[in-house]
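User: ok so my PI wants both of these folded by tonight, can you help

Assistant: No problem, let's get them done. Here's the first:
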Amino acid sequence: MHFKTSVLAAAALACACISAQAADTLAKIAETGKITLAYRESSVPFSYINGPGKPIGFSVDVANAVAAEVKRKINKPVLEISWMPVTSQNRIPLLTNGTIDLECGSTTNNSARGKDVAFAINHFYTGTRLLVKKSAGIKDYADLKGKKVAITTGTTNMLVVRKYNEEKKLDMDIVPAKDHGDALLLVEGDRASAFAMDDILLFGLKANAKNPADLVVTGEALQVEPYACMLRKDDPQFKALVDGVIVGLMKSGEFERMYTKWFMAPIPPRNQTVGLPMNAELRANIKAPSDKPAL
């Protein structure tokens, strides 16, 4: 009985040590000489690809700034930066199991996700709106009664729109899409009347669409939510580093310059401009940085 208890205690201690080691991201990076950063393939202008395996965007710039500070912090002049594509469905599992070290894309910081992961300082605020063809004459959600609406699987938008659909009894037919690019194709191909997603992502997709003039972002914004970089829970040292980088960018003015670069100027690959000025929520967050989640 005593021996069995000792074995169980030793096993529990070993598990605790492994868990603590897994949560120490800086130690993991120092030991392996590599940091693995996640990116999204079509979250324009935050994180998207401009050629095979070449992620670019506002959030990619933030992630690169974090990698530079990690390199300085652990004194690794030669640090391998590995980029891994993720989706709405697999980004959290890949983070929690240690495959990726940081995800800076277009991820909403909310309380439900906060049970599994940690979030850095918020770097954007957005609401769920609609991308439709101008020729469809759709102005708001009420115009979608009984129609097909595309939404990316694994997003908070799916929950928000489903709830709104039930409350307003619109009988919308929600069509799950693998990623934002797939949802856009459904609208362009008339297989869905609208794509419901974060407004900024819709503006970005429209800017880089084959025929931007054929599309319009419309509808009231449902539930304004913050975006933030995502990291593993219970790793205060790494969170402090990531937060420090983002706050530093905000206080130095570099954050606003980055915003202008990606939101107010022509961006690859089509050199179109998203054209979305910084909103009041984000300006307030620059003055008083917060990692407060959406409910």
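One down. Here's the second:
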Amino acid sequence: MNNSTVWAVTSKWISILEEYEKVKAGQSPLFTTVNDLCLAYHIHRKDIRKYYERWIKSGKDRSALLPHTRGPKPGKHKLLSKEEERIIIKIHRRLGANEFEIFEMLKSRFRLHPSVSTIYRTFKRYPLNKKRSKPIKRYVKRYPGELLHADTYQLAKAMMLNRQRYYLFGIVDDYSRLAFLELITANTAAEVTKAFFHSVRYFLAHGIRPERVMTDNGVEFTTFTSQKAKKTHFFETMLNIVGIQHIYTRPYHPQTNGKVERFWKIVNRECIFHAKLGQTPISLSEELNNFLYSYNYERRHGGLNYTTPLDRLRLVTESLK
């Protein structure tokens, strides 16, 4: 703040305080008492005293009369970073833990261990509605192959060199999170069936025998026009041949197939987002294979206690020995 601004902001209080000194010394030609001075300037005598003490302590420096910043004083409360606040809210939401339980969980986990009151203030800063405040109920199947989650994902035409529409077929094992991914040219029953047959061989190579598969109600997976049409559907026929049960999600409720929906977010963030524009089907398939290797064998998953799908399968193998 420059000198002219300081002069403009403090000029009123300088004149009041100089007059206040004259009143206290009995030398003011305009006011007899301090109350007369307060009535004339529409201020309280406590405010005059507050600003007068600041002015005297600073050696009558005008900058001491500038407004002070409000808020907590530095060091009074432990300030958490945004990432630490997110961790507290995530624990509160997913586990339904209160501030005392979170206080015990976070010992020696943060740069500064937050107090119970700090955790409680974080709750108030980011309130949750009644629906989101309930603990999230999660489920995991008992063994690999008990349930597979399958879905298709539409790619942008701008990604491909020939400007044609391509799709991804993805399938995830519920227990181990082992995933399969394949590029298909059309979102039809024939293309999806062929990709699913490739995925079955992929899972069998990892020692997983699929028993059930969950899909949405799209025409590439099933039909509900009639029982005869359903029995002769390409995808349904293939499932009957290989002996895999087909179950369906609730209409307009993608959360039912949430594991594969979350898988698409990871694919989009870690593979599609970094892929170059103008891809050929061969180059994009190579990118997808590299991602799939990293996802299944190297990437640690929070839903698996930060282990890889391969490690999850190894635990099952070791338990059967």
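The mean pLDDT is 87. Residues 111 and 251 are 46 Å apart (CA to CA). Good luck tonight!
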